[in-house]
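Lab notebook page, bench 4
Experiment: in silico fold of construct C2
Operator: M.H.
Input chain length: 143 residues
Purpose: comparison with the prior construct
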Amino acid sequence: MKLVTAFAKWSEMSPEYVPGKCNIGTRGRAIRVSTGAVLIALSVILRLTLLEQVFWAARLVLVVPIYVGLLAVLEGSTSFCVLHAARGTYDFNEPMGFASNRSETLGRVGSVEWKKEDRRKALRMHAEAALGSILLGVLLALT
C-alpha cells in the first residue's frame, strides 16, 4: 500500500519551478530514470560477459557509463535536471524527454540567486554521481 501511495505522490507532483528543487516534469523524470537504469544495467552486464578476461584496470572504463546512468537516475528521482540548471532554464513538458532548446514550453529562470541555487544543486548531484560511479566501477573492476 505504501509503495502505491508513494508512486501516486511521485507522479502527481505539481509542475512548478522551485529553485534548487524542481525544474522538470513527470515525462522527463520517467525517461531519465529508465535511461539511467538501463545504462547501469548494461554496464554490469558488459562487465560480467565481455570484460571477464580483461585486465582489471581496463575495466575501470565502466565508470563513465555508470556515472551517466547514476546522474540520470538522480535527475529523475529528484525532478531536477543538471543541464537545465547550467542553462538557467526549466521545462515541465519536454517534448523529447531531455533538455532541449527547441521546446516550446521552455522557461527561463529569472533571478540570479535562483540560478546560483540551481547550480549548487547540480554540483552536488554531479559529486554524488561521481562518487557512486567510482565506488561501483572499482567494485566491478575488482570482482
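Observations: Residues 1-6 have pLDDT under 50 and may be disordered. Residues 112-142 form the longest helix (31 residues).
Next step: discuss at group meeting.
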